[in-house]
Amino acid sequence: MTKRKLLSVCLILILISIMGVGTLAFFTDEEKADNIITSGNIDIQLNEWTGEVDGDGNKIRFEDVTGVMPGMTVPKIVEVENIGDNEAYVRVSAEKVITLAQEGEADLDLITMDFDLQNWTYKDGFYYYNEALQPGEVTKPLFTGVTFDAAMGNLYQNCEVKVNVSADAVQVAHNGKTALEAAGWPIVE
């Protein structure tokens, strides 16, 4: 074969190869799907208020109270509001602490709250709300007042009483038929 023929054959093979690659590119295809899956949320807000409203109709937030005497009841309304996007089961704990100003042993039973046991169920240190709380809903009050027993003597002068309240929530979806059956509650140590 002559050099010219060999060069022509090589050029033809190169052109056929280029055309084959172009043809392969012509028959290929590519697609993408960018799908976003977002989980829901559970978000609650613990509300403590006095039972009174301001001039604009807003609930007056509970603040520290001084000068309490034996036999008095201090208005303190405790509710939980679902501010999330999904329905939630709710539970609340309430712990009383008395710090005496003098030596002695405080009797926690002299401080009581009027717990609502129709809308709430007590179990293992928590009050569980009996209904699933829908987004935007507020529970019935767990309690509406803290009462200082009339039998509180001089030992309780200038004492400090705290009612520590905390709330938890878990999802309702696929999580039991009641708050008591629900799983996922935070473990308390």
Would you give an account of this structure?
With 189 residues, this protein is mainly beta. The strands form two sheets. Strands 2-1-3-8-5 form a five-stranded antiparallel beta sheet, with no helix packed on it. Strands 6-7-4-9 form a four-stranded antiparallel beta sheet, with no helix packed on it. A hairpin with a 2-residue loop joins strand 6 and strand 7. The mean pLDDT is 88. Helices cover 13% and strands 34% of the residues.
Quick recap:
13% of the residues lie in helices and 34% in strands. The chain is mainly beta.
Topology:
Elements: H1 3-26, E1 44-53, E2 59-61, E3 73-82, E4 88-99, E5 111-113, E6 120-123, E7 126-129, E8 143-148, E9 160-171
Descriptive keywords:
189 residues, mainly beta, 5-stranded antiparallel beta sheet, 4-stranded antiparallel beta sheet, 1 helix, 13% helix, rod-shaped
The dominant shape is rod-shaped
Classification by helices and strands = mainly beta
Q: Main β-sheet, in a few words?
A: 5 strands, antiparallel
Strand order of the largest sheet: 2-1-3-8-5
Distance between the termini: 93 Å
Fraction of residues in β-strands: 25-35%
Low-confidence parts: none
State the assembly state of the protein chains: single chain
Calculate the mean pLDDT score and round it. Answer: 88
Number of strands: 9
Reading the helices and strands in chain order gives HEEEEEEEEE
Number of helices: 1
Radius of gyration: 35 Å
Helix content: 10-25%
